[in-house]
């Protein structure tokens, strides 16, 4: 009745990426080879080709990202959904670690004691880490704004993946990060999400390790 | 420099939903009142208005969904990201529980022993539950296909939230579920995702409980 395509489970991802490449060509959208792993994986996770035209990258960021990830960074996420979506096995194989401070009971206590939001307390906690730190923000523009304020005060994240989604202060928060001189990967506009933040992390991870994939 | 809107954290969601309503009106898209909580929350989580035209609902499904959720169902998710995104506090307040069997070591062992995929073993495990069960599928079309096969053999899920995303067998798997006579909420086409699956669950949860919100 419904013609299911007979694709082996192991080949589904490869087939999907080939289809994405063909459809980008049909739409006459060109993607720079070094950005393709990130852009293809974001489209793979959203089925939304608009990302090919809105994803933005600071100069030389892919080389910087591969370098940072190869040394096993701390990845701080704004939500547990982004944390869940990151391939921890691949990250740990490189010596890295993912954390979502907002879920820590001590952060909730600190936020309450200081009269700030949990998001702010969590970002300030992350900026106290001495390890090279990647920020993967898929939901909260307030997290990006706290990070921007830290950067203005001299804090230097190793990489900012800024892809929150939404209607209030999302566009502005992304533009603020894009004006800094830290390495960033941002999706311009209102779209993004926890799935997109995790996809960007995984796209970088999958180019490293023993068995690189697109 | 960047004009941030001064919206109190507690009002961001309300402001976003008002903006979504205004933009739907501008686009002359009408949303049935009983479906609005789900459709608005999916747009809120994706910033993608296409969902207003592709989300599909079986007859009377919202009334059935509210009835099922009010009695505290088991919600089975296909991935840990969907599990992460569901508001467990709201679900547990109604006496419900969320599970993601695919992450269980015993499911991995069963899949290996039987020579089936983990996704299939996890869905078959879920269909052995005697409690009323809601399925929230945000990623794996194979999970929906296993569920369809179970339904053909007489299994009756309480509700199927079928919103996997992707390029291979995703459209077909959704159409198969839409032809069954079980209650379903599906997003037609290739789009969907773990964020969308969690948003649908939360939209239903937030209409119940002591402090209903849109």
Task: Draw up the topology in text.
The structure is a homodimer of 214-residue chains.
Chain A (H helix, E strand, L loop, with lengths): L8 H18 L9 H11 L4 H4 E3 L3 H10 L3 E4 L2 H6 L2 H6 L3 E3 L5 H10 L3 H10 L5 E5 L3 H12 L6 E4 L7 H9 L5 E4 L6 H12 L9
Parallel strand pairs in A: 2-3, 2-4, 4-5, 5-6
Antiparallel strand pairs in A: 1-6
Helix pairs in contact in A: 1-2, 2-11, 7-8, 8-9, 9-10
Properties at a glance:
homodimer; alpha/beta; 214 residues
Can you tell me about this structure?
2 copies of one chain form a homodimer. By secondary structure, chain A is of the alpha/beta class. Chain A has 11 helices and 6 strands. The first copy, chain A, has helices at 9-26, 36-46, 51-54, 61-70, 80-85, 88-93, 105-114, 118-127, 141-152, 170-178, 194-205, and strands at 55-57, 74-77, 97-99, 133-137, 159-162, 184-187. In chain A, strands 1-6-5-4-2-3 form a 6-stranded mixed beta sheet, sandwiched between helices. In chain A, helix 7 (105-114) packs across helix 8. The radius of gyration of chain A is 18 Å and the shape is globular. The relative contact order of chain A is 0.18. At the A-B interface, helix 1, helix 2, helix 5, helix 10 and helix 11 of A face helix 1, helix 2, helix 5, helix 10 and helix 11 of B.
